[in-house]
Specification:
1% strand; disordered C terminus; two-stranded antiparallel ribbon; single chain; 23 helices; 71% helix; 531 residues; mainly alpha
Length: 531
Amino acid sequence: MQTSMARPVKLWVPGDWNALFGFGTNILVNLLVLTGLLQFVIKMPTDIIFGRILPATGLMMFLSTGYYAWLAYTYARRTGRDDVCALPSGISVPHMFVVTFVIMLPITIETGDPIMGWEAGLVWVFFQSFILMIGGFIAPFVRRVTPRAALLGALAGVSIAFIAMKPAFDMFLNPVIGMVCFGIILVSWFGGVRYPRGIPAGLIAIAFGMAVVWGAAMLGYEVAGINAAGLQSAFSNFGFSFPTPAIDHVRDGFKFLGIILVTAIPFGIYDLVEAMDNVESAEAAGDHYPTTRVLTADGVVSLIGCLMGNPFINAVYIGHPGWKAMGGRVGYSFATGIMVIVLCWFGVIAVVLALVPIVAISPILLYIGMLIGAQAFQSTPSSHAPAVVLALLPSIAAWALTMVNGALGAAGVQVTPELITAMAGNGVLYQGLHILGGGAILSGLILASIAVFIIERKLETAAIFALVGAALTFFGFMHGESIGFNVTPLVALAYVILGGFLYLSGRLAIAGDEPAPTPDRMVDPIAQPAE
């Protein structure tokens, strides 16, 4: 044993080049998307993006990739193995869109100030970080009691409404780039086609988009907002920007606490389950990492990033077995962290974004939305599909409300009781959108859980979830715009009555005899964690 422990660990092996290219490209695309969301969706001032947010993001990701490289190094040294691969990590992609479209954008629209949207995003990550750090104690319980269809269905609602919709619109505004890039993505990521020399599909899509816009620019046309003047302007962002504390901005964001907690809590729970799944995936590939240390590390580095100005959560990525199969070991993770520092601290991202049209990236976002949405149906019993559909509805309502409010705001129209009545007469149930879409993630999770347990004839368990829904609704976590007391009393009362009905139904067995089990019904709805 002493001999194996003393065995030296190589910090870099040839396979790390493969893993660095693949994983580094993935990180680069995520950074481009992140920057595009801030610049073109939130309309964040460029000095805040390139002088505050990206430097903080770079610091957080450097700490994360460096820590997991060190964790892999110590693990390899302790075991004497030479095949240990570091866990991949970076900005959580689903949460990137959630905090942008569910937190930062609505508050930016409401206040007319993107800085306030940024501050709200910081507080969202602040709470997420602590949920991750203490979550190791509650994540197993959540996995046991919550149906997978509910967890994945609520996430699918967000992915369809707030991740997939806008990129789809963008693609058809510039269809030559958008549709072709979409085909490039789908052929590889859904069709399984490998491009020459293993070049990633995302990189090929970006290259095609660049070829089209810059070819048009050479002919004197401007496509997708890309032009030489914009590229020249982007070079003004070159320069060293070191992250500086943003504690005052975190403090200011607490004024939006009620809105933030409605999504921070359920997504914090999802983070716990996702991290546990990814650690289990690494263990299946032969590398055992302690879940508690992983969750704590994600929480700590996210908190550091938040206090320095980064409104995006850190997460362990799925895909460890893939990078390990490529030959990645310890070095690729640390090298990726160095790459991120260069991109984020020296303004390189601004130049890359001025070179790459957003519409070439939009298909990647649509793919992510499609994948997350499809997963809710593919990874759950088919008998639970109605519950998944039910979980989608609150997020769709929240998206529709955002569209209606955006249209009214653009027209300079004030929402009045008379206008609400007039809209109802034309089929737009504005108040219904408010109630159903309030706290959409929790609402979808609770409604889908009730539906799953009804489908499984576990009516007393469904009654418990209905009563939980009543409590959450009473305090404004569901079906409300902010946390408080007695926010939507009639909805809370309805959940109480529903819970009583389900409990009595279960006790009196009025549901009828239990049907013969089918292959779908034989799948335990609460035994498998969400991914």
